[in-house]
Amino acid sequence: MFDLDKIQEIWITITRNKVRSLLTAFGVFWGIFTLVVMIGSGDGLERGVMKGVKGFATNSCFLGSAPTAIPYKGFQKGRAWDIRNKDITILMDSIPEIKFLSPVLWGQVFNNNIVYKDQSGTFHVKGLYPNYAQVESQHLSYGRFINDIDIEKKRKVCIIGKKVFEKIFPRKENPIGQDIRVNGVLYQIVGVTNGLSDINIGDKLESSVLLPFTTLQQINNQGDIIHFIAAISQDNVRANYIEDRIKQVLKSINHIHPDDYKAIWSFNMENEYTMYMNLFSGVSILIWIVGLGTLVAGIVGVCNIMLITVKERTREIGVRRAIGAKPRKIINQIMWESIVLTLISGVWGLCAGIYALHIADLVWVQKQENMFILHPMITFKIGILSLVILLISGMLAGIIPATRALNIKAIDAIREE
Q1: 410 within a domain of the structure (yes/no)
Q2: Which of 60, 206, 325, 327 has a beta carbon 3.0–4.6 Å from 161's, enabling a disulfide?
Q3: Does residue 293 lie within any of the structural domains?
């Protein structure tokens, strides 16, 4: 139970010099306010950036062909080559560490290549396998994704992205079963997807029309050419490993020099994810160093004002010691004053910081579509940790003044003018 009379006595003591107390309290207020705002902003930055890679498998990689840079086995430098259907089978047989392997094909893009009745638009066209959904997660508003029967029978079906749907179906009616013209060929809509990620490989899924891979390969009339492949490693295998192994196998079966690093382009999500995690760890460490440094400055101010308070109350402390006050009572008085001053100003700073993050989220961040900072806030755990830091800081700020008060001799203090 709290002794209200004791707390009131402490508060009266603290407010003897209002200006000095307010300035000291503001130091603590500003320290915890800065710490909270910086932590919330850092978490918002992480949330915003990670939203961009949300939906992509972090153990995935993408590879495609490019002109060779080194002559090899009678082939000249600059030779163009392509990944073929047979390469997929060889890769899966040669590299058991691959969990999923999905070839991807581009379709033609020209002005108003997607047509439905009197509506039209220009969008990218992709040919995919069903397992591509393991690489890039799908959020389907209507219908389904590509399935194995679509691939086997080369069905003329398609999945349209959300932006495609909004463009050619302005009334927002259910598009499932409707026929649209894609590059001059009729396809039946079986699904509407909205990709979760902001990563742009050719174009976002929400701005694309997706066809069964085999259907588009036949329509393109380019034989068994594959434009690039997407691979996911087994759960206990790094994506870097299968990326290197895929490059080795592709170079071997396509007569490319082992040291030709330009013949195969690649993009590794694991490297990107690791880079982001390292960046956020560094930002978090920097935030805590700067924030705690600012808070320490405020705590030093509390310590100084308590030392001044002890100096001003030397005679009072001496009299109390002379009439039998125990050292513990003197120490408790000083420590409580330090803790109360720190907690009150710190809690105000904590509340102000949370409110500032809330206002920033409402007024600034939510009105921007492509913001790097998303919903800046602190967790309940961080809030509790901040209160614990304040309590410990208040205790630390009172140790030196309390020790100083304890060392005052009663006879010397009574003689103090």
Answers
A1: yes
A2: 206
A3: yes
Q: Using CA atoms of 398, 403, 406, 409 in order, give the dihedral in degrees to the nearest 10.
A: -130
CA pair distance 306, 9, nearest whole angstrom:
15
pLDDT at 366: 56
Structure tokens at 396: 């630390």
Question: Measured between alpha carbons, how far is 22 from 345 in angstroms, rounded to an integer?
Answer: 9
DSSP per position, 123-189: -EEEEE-TTHHHHB---EEEE----HHHHHHT--EEEEEHHHHHHH-TT----TT-EEEETTEEEEE
Q: How remote is the C-alpha of 306 from its chain's centroid?
A: 42
Range of the domain at 393: 4-54+274-415
Displacement of CA 45 from its chain's centroid (Å): 6
pTM of the full structure: 0.70
What is the number of domains present in the chain? Answer: 1
Nearest to 411 by CA among 315, 311, 312, 313: 315
Please answer whether residues 247 and 63 qualify as being in contact, where contact means their C-beta atoms are separated by less than 8 angstroms. Answer: yes
Domain-embedded: residue 212: no
Residue 357 in domain: yes
